[in-house]
Structure formats: C-alpha cells, structure tokens
Amino acid sequence: MYAASREASSRSREALRAALTGSDSVAATTGSELFAVVAVLDDQRSLRVALADVSVPGSVRAELSERVFGAKVSAATQAVLTTAVAQDWSRTSDLVDTLVLLGQEALLESASERGRLDAVEDELFRLGRIIADNPELEQALSDRGKPAEGKRELIARLLSGKAEPITVTLAEQVVTRQRGSLGVAIDELSDLAAARREQIVAHVRAAIDLAPQQRERLAASLRRIYGKPVTVHVQVDPSLLSGLVVRVGDDVIDGSATGRLERLRRELA
C-alpha cells in the first residue's frame, strides 16, 4: 500500500477496535457483515469506485455507505464502514482488501473472546496442509469458473463437525474471493491468528513427524533467536530425506539432506 492507504487502513482499524466493545457476538456479527459488504462491493464495480473516489468529500462517501448498507448491517459494522469509506485511499482495491482484513480480525477477536483462537489457528493450518496435499481439491476450490456457492458447500462438507464455526466462515470467505495462491491465503490467516496471540509462526517441513519434545525444543530455540513466542506448524515431507526446513517470515533455515546436497552440488559446480 502507498502512504495514503496505509494511513486510511490504520484509522479503519482503530474504528474496528472502538466498535468491538461488548460480547463476542458483536465481533462475530461485525466480521460476518463486513464479509457480506465485501461481496456486494466485489459484485458492483460502480459502487466500490464511488465509495473510494477521492474527488468526492469523505462525508459524502460516508453518507452513501449509510444509504446503501445502513439498514442491512449492525451499528458496529456501519461505524467501521463509515470510517473506512471516509478515508482517502490510494486505490479502490486497498479499501476492499482492508475491509476483508478487518472482517478477519473481527472474527478472530470473537474466537479469542471465546477462548478458541488457538483452535482456529490450528484448524486453519491443517486445512492449508489438506489442500496442499490434494491437488484435485485445490483445483476445485481455486477454479474461478466454479460458482461461489459450490465452493462454500465443498468447504462446509470438508469441515463439517471438525472445525470451529469461525474457521468455516474464514475458509469460505477465502475460497470464494480468491485472488492468489489458496494455500498462501490460508497460511496468512493462520499467521494472523498467531499474531493476535502475540506469537510468530514457524512453518516447518520435516522428513518425519516431530515428537512433542522435539517441537518444544525447536520452539524454544526459535524463541531465543526471534525474541518472541513461536508457534511451530509441521508438515511432513519425505522428499527431504532427513532434517528440517524452517521458514519464519522471509527467513528460511534449510537443514535438510536435500538442502545440503544441493549446496554441495553448487560448490562442486
């Protein structure tokens, strides 16, 4: 984002924090309603352009959002939306993407208030691994020619009785509004949940699964390196032969056999 959109996003996030006072149902309702607003904006180009048109005073854009959505959403959601559209955005897409992020944050706040944030984080990670390990499933969920309702039904069947309702809502929104790699989008959601717990995430590929004690030692080592609590998510990848590949943000630590062989090959070349 350019500077204007970063400032607009920051102010919108402040409005969300102010709106989410009360029970966890306020946060859950706000998150779901923001997703519904985004669906409308995705479908109606003229409306989303009008709400982000910097040539029009912010107060006029705020009034337009109230006329369109005021009777359809709660007071908390409308307060967030009014603040967001009144800001000056560098690009129309920045407004819509920020509303998506605010919806996600509201739902994760609801999970936190219910004491289920760690469960949601873990379920999102596992969903990402299931999709990554099943190319046919990923293709079905990524097919832009497939109706959104069909994708929602597929996610619902996949997660029914196995995941928190908030996990299902978040996953449905991601697959019906996919803009890039589905696996990356799910991982980003899992990382966002970890960030709300003031933790960073280590994505680990291991030749064999790690025992609980090994995960704890790895998490402790990474905490010493990064100075913050670390959540370790492990994906078993036999192609590594042995060892681990650890990714924390942009940092990659490759201690796998295949990684060592590749380094040796480059040195010999």
What would your notes on this structure say?
- Its main location: membrane.
- The protein has 269 residues and is α+β, with helices and mostly antiparallel strands.
- It folds into 2 domains: 3-197, no CATH class; 199-268, no CATH class.
- It is 67% helix and 9% strand.
- It has 13 helices and 4 strands.
- The protein has a 4-stranded mixed beta sheet, with helices on both faces.
- β1 (200-206), α12 and β2 form a beta-alpha-beta unit.
- α1 (3-19) packs antiparallel against α5 (75-85), α1 (3-19) packs parallel to α6 and α9 (148-159) runs antiparallel to α10.
- The longest helix has 22 residues, at 92-113.
- It starts with a helix and ends with a helix.
- The relative contact order is 0.10.
- The model has no long low-confidence stretch (mean pLDDT 88).
Which keywords apply here?
alpha+beta, 2 domains, 9% strand, 269 residues
How are the elements arranged and paired?
Blueprint lengths: L2 H17 L4 H20 L1 H7 L6 H12 L5 H11 L6 H22 L3 H16 L2 H8 L5 H12 L5 H12 L5 H15 L3 E7 L5 H15 L3 E7 L7 E5 L2 E4 L2 H12 L1
Parallel strand pairs: 1-2
Antiparallel strand pairs: 1-3, 3-4
Unreliable stretches: none
- The count of helical stretches stands at 13
Rg (CA only)? 21 Å
Number of strands: 4
Total domain count: 2
Fraction in helix: 55-70%
Assign an overall shape. Answer: elongated
Q: What distance separates the N and C termini?
A: 41 Å
What is the ordering of alpha helices and beta strands? HHHHHHHHHHHEHEEEH
What would the average pLDDT be, to the nearest integer?
88
Tell me the major beta sheet. 4 strands, mixed
Output the structural class.
alpha+beta
Q: Within the largest sheet, what's the order of strands?
A: 2-1-3-4
β-strand amount: 5-15%
